[in-house]
Amino acid sequence: MKRLKKIIPRGSIVLSITSFASYILGLARDHFFAQTFGASRTLDAYNAAFLFPDLLFNILIAGGISAAFIPILTDLFHSDQKKAREYINTILTAATTVMTLTAIVVFIFSDSITVLVAPGFEAQDRLLVAKILRLLAFSPILFAASNALGAILITRGRFFFYGLSPILYNLGIILGTVFLVPHWGVMGVAIGTLFGAALHFLSRLWDAWQQGFRFKPKYDFKNPQFKKTLKLMLPKMFGHPIELATFWGFTAIASTLIPGSVAVINFARNFQSVPISLIGITIATTSFPLLSGAVSQKKKEDFFKTLQRSFLLIFSLSTFSAIFIFLIRQPLISIFLGGGSFDSNDIHRTATILAIFCLSIPTESLVHLLARAFYATKNTLIPVSVSILGILIAIPGGFFLSASYGLSALPFTFFLGSVLELIILLVLLPIYLKKSLD
Description:
Layout: H1 2-7, H2 10-37, H3 41-79, H4 81-108, H5 110-117, H6 123-136, H7 139-155, H8 160-184, H9 187-210, H10 224-239, H11 242-254, H12 261-296, H13 300-337, H14 344-357, H15 360-376, H16 381-405, H17 409-437
Helix pairs in contact: 2-8, 2-12, 3-4, 3-6, 3-7, 3-10, 3-11, 3-12, 4-6, 4-7, 5-6, 6-9, 7-9, 8-9, 10-16, 11-16, 12-13, 12-14, 12-15, 13-14, 13-15, 14-17, 15-17, 16-17
């Protein structure tokens, strides 16, 4: 056991366990959604309203926290504790202020925003989206504070409450669905979502408080570390929300199709994303420091050996997962989502979309690895540019093909976009590495 802990850091074990638990709660959340609403326009409205504030949060805050805040804070903790505390309070103040102002704008213009996220909805359906959106607009404020607190916990090696927070978030949504929907309809889910966001924040606040953190609003935006944070955030602001932007486009297209289309594509995507996260992202993340080390030491052979081993491992495991999910898709969806308001037609529609999404499990998983290969050379521009190109294939392609092929066009063009990304990255990587490592 001691030997295992030397090989696998304790934090990785804790995060693996909590991530798996979060996936289980996510499936339970989808189960209650399906049982309560089925593939209906009501659930479409919730999904459409949920997407916009989540996208804004990922553009304005989430990418910067991961890319800039953690490395700068780590350096400050080792050099100057006082400056570290001031920096934390400045980031927290700035993040919550930005998201509060954003929430107010979304609240005021929610009616107009519904045209952007769900242009195909009838007027009464867009009114429901606007109503939900006004409430969900305030959840990113809690997430902004929670993400900043999460960065503190990571730098302190505190992983339990960091990993627990997404579990509590899903739990809040489930509680809202089970106990509040009978009284307030789909608004009960929105209230549960806001409650889950509060639990996400409070769990991390509790652990940070135990570590001695005390928040004091600070508007020192001329702080050199704060300026450096903004500089490092910019590339990540464009790259981090690419996936969400893609599914914003898909939601807009799906809103023009038959009721339940937004819900169906969300359900199918949630199933498809599990092997990508557990295989593609996990292996790519653990390979990243090895690739970075090989680049810094100019060890070209080690770089390609690590990349080849990781590539083959991801390809084999993700392909097996894709085939396995394809074969069991119908009973899988029937077991987890079937029953209640989610009838046999909903099961068949979701299984069809999941079958096409299975094509992109290997390609999307491998793109995560190749992107990190570029990151190891300190190049974020190429992966971001290529991912934007993927959007330009997926969204316009989905729009034009949906007229003939309906909802099935969206996962298919998503697959085509990921294939194009994979091919371009595979072609460009050796060329770029020749300049970096030779």
